[in-house]
Amino acid sequence: MSVKIIIVDDHDLFLDGLTSIFIKEIGIDVIGMSNNGLEALKLLESGLEPDVILSDIRMPIIDGITLVKLLHSSYPHIPVIILSMFDQNADMFEMYDAGVKGYVPKKTNKKTLIEAIHTVSKGELYFEKSFLDTYKKYKKNNEHVEEITLTKRERQILQLIVKGRSSLQIANELKLSKFTIDTHRKNIHKKTGIKNNIHLIQHAQQWL
């Protein structure tokens, strides 16, 4: 019995290339293609029932990370394999945490991809040992982030930093001196280990 798959990628050339490969492959049937997560969800809503979804990470409208989370909530029985050129980066680790069942780099060969599809369709996971080892190191190196605790005042100031307020604007809003605000900002940077304001804003949500 063939494994029915949907492929999600924003590059038509890649979609066409994979489809041409699977047309010649006995045991795999491409029942749908889409350029982003929203289109993939519409295919499912139309009644398509894939055994496996192959998805890229970075796509317009609904990206791969959001798609995996939505599928995990609404279609938990459909496993997802990630196909990505971004090898072992933070996005991939987030998708692993979100519940993807397999990961195959786009630079991989046909044999490996087909093996991954059949493995995941049987309810098993498909991750290379090198990926899992890197993931464990990543989690270990970032454990300190979860242990960071900001005071109520520091969280209040961080919220205003995220909104783009300057130290002087924050001081006026909270009726504190600029010196006090600058001191709190230094403490926030020290506790989080992030010196760059842009990076601080990008990661702020985990401390608020």
Which short descriptors sum up this protein?
208 residues; five-stranded parallel sheet; 2 domains; 11 helices; alpha/beta; Arc Repressor Mutant, subunit A
Q: What does this entry look like structurally?
A:
The protein is of the alpha/beta class and 208 residues long. The chain folds into two domains: 3-141, Response regulator (Rossmann fold, 3-Layer(aba) Sandwich); 147-207, Arc Repressor Mutant, subunit A (Orthogonal Bundle). Helix content is 54%, strand content 12%. The chain has eleven helices and five strands. Strands 2-1-3-4-5 form a five-stranded parallel beta sheet, with helices on both faces. α3 links the parallel β3 (52-55) and β4. α8 packs across α10 (178-192). The longest helix has 15 residues, at 178-192. It is elongated, with a radius of gyration of 22 Å. The termini are far apart. The mean pLDDT is 86.
